[in-house]
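Human: Respectfully, please carefully check these tokens:
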Amino acid sequence: MPSLLFVDCWPEVAKDGCWKRRFTAIPRAAKQSGVKANVLHYTRLDLARLTAGPPSGIILSGSRFNLLDDPSRDPRDGIALSAFATLTELLARLPQVHVLGICFGLQYLTVSAGGTLARLAVERRDPAWAIEPLVPDPLFAGLSSLHCVENHCWRIDRPAPHWQVVARSRDGIEALRHDSLPRVGVQFHPEYHRQPGATTDGQIVLMNWLSGLPRG
């Protein structure tokens, strides 16, 4: 059975294996896809154990954090990339493991690989934001267009080298895929598809990614 490691990137730390309410769609979708899911906070990652028995896939969650070169500019939510050094090392050791970054997870993947972020003029909060796939991509199988939940105040300004834009919206970049590694990220929240006003498009995106995890 494929296995999934969900990395919780929020500031608050829950007990290992305990799913926060905002993430409950993840284990539900994993079970439906025949995937065994586990959750760990980014500060609780055990490099030795995870590299000895790698998961089939890793999802990096959204977060209230804002990645900044100088976190003092945002005393409440600012955080430096160095705070995620263990996660960065884990991904470096597991280049062939499938990775999905969601919202902050995509921003982390971008900054850690050399890309840049920019702040939106107005925080984006929308239960059904229009997103346009630019190229055929397994993530959007069965969807010619989609409307998904957006909840963020930062966006991708410049993608990192080797990352290709696969979806956009009026706000800019909505999805990126690495050109050689099995890594993809989305700015929207496919796991919030049960939110009032949301469509089922996010659920389809999430199930598409889970169905692409290696079997056997």
